[in-house]
Specification:
alpha+beta, 12 strands, five-stranded antiparallel sheet
């Protein structure tokens, strides 16, 4: 209420100023001929009647340029008797005996009025141009603000602010909920947000698809963008802002169209994102089912075959042969457990379910532990480790980093010729420790350096290699959780090269006792 009273007072003051300026213009229109007379009177013996008339014409022009047509007409018609009284023979008489002066006065009045009309037309056109420029700038600012709106609530906030700025009106944008009922936003309302709108009226025009409806003291506008309805815009015009003016109506309709267009864009974007998410989910599900159906079917077949032989014909096999069958069952069960663990780890990592247990660890110990885990699979394969003397301690989760190195070693064992060597090296860079694991196989095909980190992607066909294609995906998730990066490359003279970049932290200072023990 206080804000409405303040706006009414401002509008009332504006009208008073316009009225005062109009009366000021008429006073100048009356005073202008006498001012010109005071200027011309001392020069009446030097200047001729034509020059004196030009002085009066200049006064009319100046009044017209400052106060408009009405004041200039007063000045032009008053200039004629003043000139006749003071400068036309006989002077000090309104009678004019000289035909030249009569014609000059008539020409002055006509020129003064034509000039005033022309000047007023130019001022009107200039004002219209300024108004159009202001409206274009307002529409541009609105479109820029709406382009950054992330959701319908932000659109509603922007709409309320810009409508108040350009139309001086209180407004609110209301949306239907899932049940089709309208409600006010739950957030704290803005100072110029409209409260108390009739939501039943909003529901009525929404259901009836009425473009606009006047329900005193508010106007209800349907926000629609064919073929969908977005919501309802309710505004309450204030005194001095009349939306019945055709130009104002067109301007406001453009405002409303931009708001509805943005709401439609957000709706379509949400639909596209949902469709994309659904497609990606379906693709991942199919890839997961394909990988699991192949990589679990093979070990299950082996387990079932070995178990069936042991159960149905135990007497036909020696103790050594039975032990071999049990080893097959154990190896395939371990393989299935490993596949299941990778899938579960990937799910936890992608949903933020794994918490890093960081401690200060030495890289050489982690590399040694990973190589020990793969000792059976490595066999006689040569592993060359190059670690400089300045390798710092790492603030990491040792178990997860060891899992990364284990996965990289497993990939080398799968995709490189038996007996080919592998290299593990490290380099201390500015703020990072670079760890490189490289092999001497065929390498990664050009253009596939990023794709190998995608979920369920494998370079080899299903029939050649086992696995679900999550090893490198897990590696990247773990390294990124540590604030690092991992990328694939092809080194000339070698095969594939996986480069890990881990951030180096400042280790805590050791006490004298700890230093002596170290």
């Amino acid at each position: 209420m206080h804000k409405n009273a303040q706006e009414h007072q401002i509008n009332h003051s504006g009208r008073n100023l316009l009225r005062a300026k109009r009366w000021q213009g008429y006073l100048w229109g009356i005073a202008s001929p006498f001012i010109c007379t005071l200027i011309d009177w001392p020069l009446r013996h030097v200047l001729g009647p034509a020059s004196i008339l030009m002085t009066y014409l200049l006064g009319v022009f100046l009044v017209a340029s400052s106060y408009g047509r009405g004041a200039s007409i007063v000045a032009s018609f008053l200039s004629a008797p003043v000139f006749a009284f003071y400068f036309a023979h006989p002077i000090f008489s309104f009678a004019i005996s000289d035909l030249e002066n009569i014609i000059g006065l008539a020409v002055m009045i006509v020129v003064a009025n034509v000039t005033s009309n022309f000047l007023e037309s130019l001022q009107l056109q200039a004002e219209i141009a300024k108004q159009r420029e202001r409206r274009a700038n307002s529409l541009y600012r609105l479109s820029q603000a709406l382009a950054d709106a992330p959701d319908p609530l932000a659109v509603a906030t922007i709409a309320v602010n810009h409508i108040h700025e350009n139309f001086g009106a209180l407004s609110v944008v209301v949306f239907p909920n899932k049940e089709g009922q309208f409600h006010y936003p739950q957030e704290t309302p803005l100072t110029h947000s409209l409260r108390g709108a009739n939501l039943q009226v909003a529901l009525h025009i929404y259901q009836q698809q009425t473009t606009r409806l006047w329900a005193y003291p508010d106007m209800y506008y349907l926000l629609e963008r064919s073929p969908t309805l977005q919501g309802v815009l309710v505004i309450r015009p204030t005194a001095g802002h009349d939306l019945s003016n055709p130009e104002e109506v067109t301007f406001f309709d453009t405002f409303r169209s931009l708001i509805a267009q943005t709401l439609e864009r957000l709706r379509l974007t949400e639909q596209a994102n949902n469709a994309k998410l659904q497609a990606e989910t379906e693709s991942l599900r199919n890839a997961l089912l394909s990988a699991i159906s192949h990589d679990l079917r093979t070990p299950l077949t082996h387990i079932i075959g070995a178990s069936t032989v042991l159960v149905e014909s135990p007497a036909d096999f020696s103790a050594a042969e039975k032990l071999d069958f049990n080893k097959v069952i154990l190896d395939e069960a371990l393989h299935m457990s490993e596949l299941t663990s990778k899938i579960l780890d990937m799910a936890r990592l992608t949903t933020g379910g794994i918490v890093l247990h960081r401690e200060w660890n030495a890289l050489e110990e982690i590399i040694g532990s990973a190589l020990n885990r793969q000792e059976k699979n490595l066999g006689e394969r040569q592993v060359r480790v190059y670690l400089p003397d300045d390798v710092p301690l790492l603030w990491i989760d040792a178990v997860l980093i060891e899992q990364v190195l284990t996965n990289l070693i497993e990939n080398i064992l799968k995709y490189t010729p038996a007996g080919s060597p592998m290299d593990i090296s490290a380099e201390h860079l500015a703020g990072f420790l670079s760890i490189t694991v490289s092999d001497y196989g065929q390498g990664i095909p050009e253009g596939m350096e990023e794709k190998v980190f995608a979920k369920f992607y494998r370079l080899e066909a299903e029939s050649l290699q086992s696995g679900v294609g999550l090893g490198l995906t897990l590696c990247r998730a773990i390294i990124e959780a540590h604030g690092g990066t991992i990328c694939a490359d092809h080194i000339a003279g070698k095969g594939a090269s996986l480069v890990i970049m881990l951030p180096v932290h400042e280790p805590p200072p050791l006490s004298w006792h700890e230093a002596m023990e170290a």
